[in-house]
Amino acid sequence: MELANGKPQTRSGPECGLARKPPEESTCFERPCFKWYTSPWSECTKTCGVGVRMRDVKCYQGTDIVRGCDPLVKPVGRQACDLQPCPTEPPDESCQDQPGTNCALAIKVNLCDHWYYSKACCRSCRPPHS
């Protein structure tokens, strides 16, 4: 490029010499990007109280499942879900502990929260009257 009075001079094709002209475009190959994809969330594992919901999280490059996505931005694959508090049934005054169930031990090791023992030992597990 030549300058005339501090300004660049443009020349037409024949003066420049077409052999030295750089190409205006060239082909380039781009690899598809690595990208995290997630499936929709599953239903919550509980209908009340705290459960878990899950989804698939996979790394794709184009249409291929690969390793290589940034682990720092990986979406979570499971999370807690708390839809609504579970209803608490009023204590049944007439309930009796099932014979053959060691309810004293169930109370000692805090098993009254477990659905089986709360029913089988409903008398022993009943909250004390205030």
Automatic annotation (TrEMBL):
Residues 91-129 form the PLAC domain. Transmembrane segments: none annotated. InterPro entries: PLAC, TSP1_rpt, TSP1_rpt_sf. The keyword Ubl conjugation does not apply. It comes from the Eukaryota. Keywords: Repeat, Signal. Residues 1-25 are annotated as: Disordered. This is PLAC domain-containing protein. It comes from Nannospalax galili. The gene is Adamtsl2.
